[in-house]
From TrEMBL:
General function of this protein: Essential for recycling GMP and indirectly, cGMP.
Keywords of the record: ATP-binding, Cytoplasm, Kinase, Nucleotide-binding, Transferase
Transmembrane segments: none
Subcellular location per the Swiss-Prot or TrEMBL entry: Cytoplasm
Protein name: Guanylate kinase
Enzyme type, top EC level: transferase
Protein's gene: gmk
GO CC term (a single one): cytosol
């Protein structure tokens, strides 16, 4: 496992390779919300400010929006290719959302986690339920709410990347999506992006310090106690 590089989980006295080195398996930070509440916006900000978290790039059969880049925003697949990945177990979770297929490629996530990196997911409640069954201990689930229904519609419209029909379809599903908020650990009302980002970073920092996530802690404490 890679040596920890941040003071967030390197205790005082930690030296690379030393017995008291603390490492941890990465955690899986899930963001869900009704469409347009701000997951993509917050994810980009978090990724720009935290170099220990990696985005899970989903596969989808939805067509690219203007400006979206294949391999960065999504891997855009044909339905046949998506089905092949799903049927060969290459997806950690998958769901049909707004009539398109979406899924999380397994390999990249497993590699990142075992290297001690955290992974950020922008997925819906169906995918979150599936991850909860397979990776409950690693999962941190955050649900974003818009401040008002009017704000949500305005955000979908000002994003200006979807047709009126698509905006209408997404608004009509928002209430159902929101009904799943009770399945999440944390709720952020995304009024102000800077404020939401600060809260998201605080959640991440606290979750990284959870005792059960730290490997090597028992040895560290043993060494410490022996030296007393
Ligand atoms: N706190 C905020 N205040 C005002 N506008 C916001 C806020 N957060 C995001 N937005 C804007 O709302 C629009 C939708 O945001 P974004 O694309 O991040 O939503 P999303 O949850 O990722 O949507 P989807 O589920 O459809 O992918 C964007 O134009 C974004 O700039
Ligand atoms: N279960 C999954 N849901 C996903 C995945 N990737 C994205 N999504 C969710 O789909 C909707 C629509 O996204 P959009 O980019 O078309 O606006 C949104 O709720 C995403 O969170 C995935 O891999 N699995």
């Amino acid at each position: 496992m890679a040596a920890p590089t941040s003071s967030h989980f390197a205790l005082p006295g930690w030296k690379p390779g030393s017995r008291s080195g603390l490492a941890r398996r990465g955690l899986m930070l899930v963001l869900s919300s009704p469409s347009g509440a701000g997951k993509t916006t917050l994810s980009r900000r978090l990724l720009a400010e935290d170099d220990r978290i990696t985005m899970s790039v989903s596969v989808t059969t939805r067509p690219p929006r203007p400006g979206e880049v294949d391999g960065k925003d999504y891997f855009f697949l044909t339905p046949d290719r998506f089905t092949e990945m799903r049927d060969t177990g290459a997806l950690l979770e998958h769901a049909t959302v707004f009539g398109n297929f979406y899924g999380t490629p397994r390999e990249a996530v497993e590699e990142a986690l075992s290297a001690g990196r955290d992974v950020l997911f922008d997925i819906d409640w169906q995918g979150t339920q599936q991850l909860d069954q397979s990776a409950q201990q690693d999962l941190v689930k955050v649900f974003l709410l818009p401040p008002t229904a009017g704000d949500l519609e305005k955000r979908l419209r000002t994003r200006a990347q979807d047709s009126d029909e698509v905006v209408h379809q997404r608004m009509s599903k928002a209430s159902d999506e929101i009904s799943h908020y009770t399945e999440y650990d944390y709720i952020l009302i995304n009024q102000d992006v800077d404020d939401s980002l600060a809260k998201l970073k605080a959640i991440l920092q606290a979750e990284r310090l959870k005792r059960r996530r730290l490997t090597g802690l028992a040895d560290f404490v043993k060494d410490l106690r022996e030296a007393l």
